[in-house]
Structures are given as C-alpha cells and as structure tokens.
Write a structure and sequence with these properties.
single chain, about 550 residues, alpha+beta, SH3 type barrels, Herpes Virus-1, five-stranded antiparallel beta sheet, two-stranded antiparallel ribbon, 35 strands, about 30% helix, elongated, disordered C terminus
C-alpha cells in the first residue's frame, strides 16, 4: 500500500512538472519557445499585440501601435502633444529625400488653417505639404514660444492664446500684427497712434499725418520767402512779404491769379481784382464776383441770373419785362398769352375783344328783330324762330345801314352788319393803344399808333420796340430820341430809310430835332422832309418846311 501511494505521488509530481515546464507559443504574436507557466505573464505585460491604454487613458490600442498612435504629426490620438503650428513658422527642417535618402534643408514659411498644410521652401521651390507626409527632423530646435499643445486644443490655442497669432491693430490702421508685438506696434509703429507735434505747437494728431502737419499746417513750421529766400517762422511770413521783403511779388489773395508788387495789394483788392465781391446795381445781390457781374446782368450766369434785368417777352408781345415779373406778365398781362373765352374757345388775348364782337357765341346781345330781350348769340336763332314777338319781321324789307356806310340790309341782318362787316363800325386799335377808330381808318391809324413796333436805322430785330419807347423826356420836359444800345441808331433813321412820314410822334419831335443843337439829326430830318413833299397830309409837310428853313 505504501509503495503504491508513493508511486502515485511520484507520477503526479512528474506530470505536474511536465505540464508547467512545457514549451508553448503565444496565441497573439509570433513569439514562441515560451514556458507555459510564463505564458500568462507574457500575454499581460510583454506581448506586442496585447491591448494597452493609450494617452490619458482615452483609448485602448495594441502595444506595438501605441508609438505611432501617439506620434505628434502622424498619430490619431486626439490628445497627442504637438508643437504650436505658428511656432513652426520660419524654422528650418531637414527632410529626407525619398530618391537619394539624403536630408535636404527646407524652411517653413506659412500655415494654412483651412486644411492644416504648411508652405515650405524646398531647394527646388515652394510646396504646400502636411508635416505628417514628411520624414523630417527640426534643425532649429530651440526657443519654442508655446511649448506642447494637445491636438484637440490646438485650434483654440491658435485663435485665443498663441502669442504668435495674427490680430488686428486696435487703433484702426487695418494692419494685422503678432499678438506679442501688438503693444509695441500700437505704441511705437501704428500710423493711427496719437502723437504731439514735434515743433511743439501743441496740436496732437495721428502719426501718419505728422509729416503733412509739419510741412503744411503747423503754425510754427519754418518757411522760406518765395522772393528773397529768407527762412523764418510761418507767422512772420505774411508781414515779411507785405512790408519787409525787397523782392516780394505776391499772388492775389482772392484768387484772381495776378502777381502784385508790395504796396499795390490794397488798391488791387478794392478796385481791380476780378474776384472782389460786388453788388448788382439792379437787384442788390452782394454775392457776386466782379467778373460774374456782366453775366449776371445778361442772365447767363447759372443759378444767379439778375431778377431785376429787363428782357423781352418770350411770347413776342414786344413789351420789355423785368425778369422776376416775367411769369406774372405771361400769365396776366401779356396780350400774346393764350386765354380761354367764357364760350370755351382758346385764343390769343389780343384777339379776345374781336372774338367777342364777331365770333363769340356766348356774348349777350339784344334781339336783332327789336323785341327788346337780351340773350346769348347761341340762343338767338331759337328765340327768333319760336318766342320772339317780332319774329314776323325776320324776312322783311331792306333798310339802309344806320352808321352811314350806304349798304342796304334786311332788318334781321342789320346788327350783324353793323358789328362785323360795316366799314363805319367802331373797332379797337390792333396794337392795343386804347384808342378806338372806324374800321375804314384802321390802316391809317396803325401808321401813327404810338404802340406801333419799329426798329432802329440798322433794321435789327433785336432793337424792335414800340414807337413810344423810342422817346424820353429830358430835364426840361422836352421829348428826345433814344438811341439803341447795340447800334447807336434810332427810329428816325428807320423812318428816313423806309420813307415813313406818317409817324405822328416824330412830327411832334421835329422842333427839337431841327434845332442847331442837333446837327447830325438835322440832316436826317431834312431827308425825311424831302420825302414828305409828295405826302397828302399838309400838316406834316408844312411842319417840315417851316422848321427846315432854319
């Protein structure tokens, strides 16, 4: 029994020793020759394919993949430590050339945040590359400003914390500078920083304006006399040029461009300068330059035409009108304006009276048959055919015109004849002189009408005006001829040229014209006298003969 028990114990110990000491292979990695009792230790701590915890215990990876997983530029760990992207700029790196296996020196120039690439200057030119694509080592591995930053915090760091990030100048110059250099830029370099005038005039301004201020605006700047070349402070220049400089020829301060000698400035400014302020004699406008006054008076100065100048009526009525009153004249008094009759017919104002006498169907008249009733002309025919008490006379015998023209008309047509066709009817002057004449004398009257429009002896339409406008009274109250401004001629010259001897206004002026005090006009009047010999009007002919004898 004891021997059997000892045998069983020996066999069990041998079996246990053989099992624990056998050679086995790792089931995960290719490593073999492991003692079975050490296999568990190998798989937990030594197997390259064991699962291990990554950086900051965030991920579980295989042990042999951990170095690549946590590599700064090529790894996938979100918390891997990297150098700040801005810290790489201007650094030299050595990049392995895949073709030759040698290292080439390159310089990192720019970083593009949109895709994370760097612009690198290689020996053969500039290229955009990811650092993870390159096999490189850093040649300038010193003076890192930002240290290591986790990949997940890199964007936040570059936007808000990195001292090398580009920021806008806070003074508004528009320049982007590094954060670490912004204070220096704003205090010493920015063109918008506030500085005091170096000439100590007391003014403060933006640094970019200091040169212009010192050269053109500062009251303490040094200037040179343009004539003698003497240097002096700017406040003393004016006094020097006006009173002291022996060679000074100053430019007109009012801007006319004329060069003036010392001592003649005041006279030029008050009497000669075309840019001096003058007052219009007609409208009292005191905002005009001297060279603008003729244009102002002529009405050709834009937006500053003289409102008191006299201009011809734009409708051609012949009346001289003050420019400011032209709209009122055109609307209310011009006899060439268009008006609307009460009958609804549009016509020229000067023909309105003839229209009411001859044509207007709305004028009120007595019944032409003599019943004594008043009505509009447009209603006359119906009245005489239906309700007139004298309608039985509508086809009566012929009677003589009561105005004495000798024409026989029917009683029904007598009124129409007397108002429209009778040569003895009374009509108004066509020139609107306020006189009334017989129709048969109208042509004769138009020759002597004071509103007749005639020109000067030059026959220019510019000088066309009414006869009464060619005369004016002198201080003694006598009539005198007026010469036109353009040709220095008058209506008497026109009358001699045209042979017009029936202008009564000229006849009344003859005693003055034929006096020895007017020798030029005396000769002209005698020519008019010679042409008047054949005229049938004895009063005009006798007047010429009586005064020409002198």
């Amino acid at each position: 029994m004891h021997a059997r028990a000892a045998y069983v114990h020996t066999v069990s110990a041998l079996v246990h020793t053989c099992v624990c000491r056998r050679v086995v292979k790792c089931p995960d990695c290719p490593i073999g020759g492991l003692v079975s009792e050490r296999l568990d230790t190998h798989m937990r701590h030594m197997c390259p394919k064991r699962s291990v915890v990554g950086l900051f215990d965030l991920d579980i990876v295989l042990a042999f993949e951990r170095p690549n997983y946590e590599e700064p530029e090529k790894g996938d760990c979100s918390e891997r430590l990297q150098r700040c992207r801005q810290d790489f700029l201007s650094r030299r790196i050595k990049v392995r050339n895949a073709a030759t296996g040698e290292f080439d020196t390159a310089t990192i120039m720019h970083y593009r945040e949109t895709d994370g690439r760097f612009r690198i200057q290689f020996p053969d030119g500039f290229k955009w590359r990811y650092l993870g694509e390159l096999d490189f080592v850093i040649a300038d591995d010193s003076k890192w400003d930002c240290g290591y930053i986790s990949a997940s915090q890199m964007s936040h760091h570059m936007l808000t914390e990195c001292p090398k990030r580009a920021v806008m100048c806070r003074l508004g110059c528009g320049q982007r500078v590094l954060e670490r250099g912004r204070e220096v830029h704003e205090s010493e370099q920015c063109g918008m920083r506030t500085v005091l005038c170096p000439l100590k005039c007391g003014h403060s301004m933006a640094a970019e304006d200091i040169l212009e201020h010192c050269e053109e605006l500062c009251t303490l700047r040094e200037v040179y006399c343009g004539s003698c070349g003497l240097a002096m402070p700017f406040p003393d220049l004016e006094k020097h040029v006006v009173t002291d400089c022996p060679l000074a020829v100053s430019r007109c301060p009012q801007g006319c461009g004329k060069d003036l000698k010392v001592g003649s400035v005041d006279t030029h400014l008050s009497e000669e300068c075309v840019k001096r302020i003058v007052t219009c004699p007609d409208c009292n406008d005191s905002s005009l330059f001297a060279d603008e006054l003729p244009l102002h008076l002529a009405g050709t100065l834009r937006d500053q035409e003289c409102g008191a100048r006299t201009i011809p009526c734009t409708l051609g009525c012949g009346e001289p009108v003050v420019a400011a009153k032209l709209p009122d004249h055109l609307q209310n008094s011009c006899h060439k304006r268009t008006i609307t009759c009460e009958c609804g017919f549009e016509l020229i104002a000067e023909t309105h009276s003839d229209h009411k006498i001859l044509d207007c169907p709305a004028v009120i008249r007595y019944c032409s048959l003599g019943c004594g009733e008043k009505m509009r002309v447009m209603e006359m025919k119906e009245h005489q055919s239906t309700t007139c008490e004298m309608r039985h006379l509508a086809g009566g015998k012929l009677v003589a015109c009561t105005l004495g023209c000798g024409v026989l008309v029917s009683f029904a047509e007598q009124f129409t004849h007397m108002t429209s066709s009778c040569t003895k009817r009374i009509v108004e002057c066509v020139n609107k002189c306020s006189e009334v004449v017989r129709f048969e004398d109208q042509d004769e009257h138009s020759l002597v009408c004071r509103n007749r429009r005639v020109t000067c002896g030059n026959k220019s339409k510019v000088c066309l005006r009414q006869v009464r406008c060619w005369f004016a009274r002198d201080n003694a109250g006598k009539k005198q001829l007026v010469c036109c401004e353009n040709h220095q001629s008058n209506a008497l010259m026109w009358a001699v040229e045209k042979g017009e001897t029936k202008v009564s206004a000229l006849c009344n002026l003859l005693p003055n014209l034929l006096s020895p005090a007017n020798p030029p006009q005396l000769a002209t009047a005698r020519q008019l006298h010679a042409r008047a010999d054949g005229e049938p009007r004895p009063r005009l002919r006798d007047t010429f003969r009586r005064h020409a004898a002198h």
